[in-house]
Design a protein that fits this description.
The protein is an alpha/beta fold and about 170 residues long. Helix content is about 25%, strand content about 15%. The protein is built from five helices and eight strands, in the order E-H-E-E-E-H-E-H-E-H-E-E-H. The chain has a four-stranded parallel β-sheet with strand order 1-2-5-6. The longest helix has 14 residues. The radius of gyration is 18 Å and the shape is globular. The termini are far apart.
Length: about 170
Amino acid sequence: MASNGETHLSFTGNCYIEHRVSVHHQKEGFRKLIELLMASDLSFANMTSAIQYGENWPTFGSGMGWAGTFMGAPPSMIEELQFMGIKAVYAANNHVADFGELGILTTIDYLKRGGMPYAGIGASLTEAAQPTYLETEHARVALIALADWGPRQMMDLPFPWPIAAATRRPPLR
């Protein structure tokens, strides 16, 4: 972007794309957003979902508490993010585990097949903790993503968390 040796990065907030958005690229506000993302050397998005095509249903818990939602975006979300200029996603968040461990592995498979670099999830804690590296004209950028999420209490759920139920200690007397 800049000829002065600077690297310009853009970061978006939560992205969950269930339907094609590329068809709206002529709308002025959306076009300006795309122009901003594409003008950056690298643009990143928080992928606030798993990527599913109905593979890993049902799940053991969702999002946050009694009003939780199951955020499973279709694989086309990857193409839509790429259309908007997104070069990598940070995937560690409260919805990536909505479909359990298999949902995370399926998400990883779709990201790899779609050519979308990611950080924050993996088949093991070691893999999930690894950064992803992207090159620009002037710099090498490491994307690191992490989230502290998981059952620590009932969170108003009418049922126990499966993981928590298996590890729950009896109350102290």
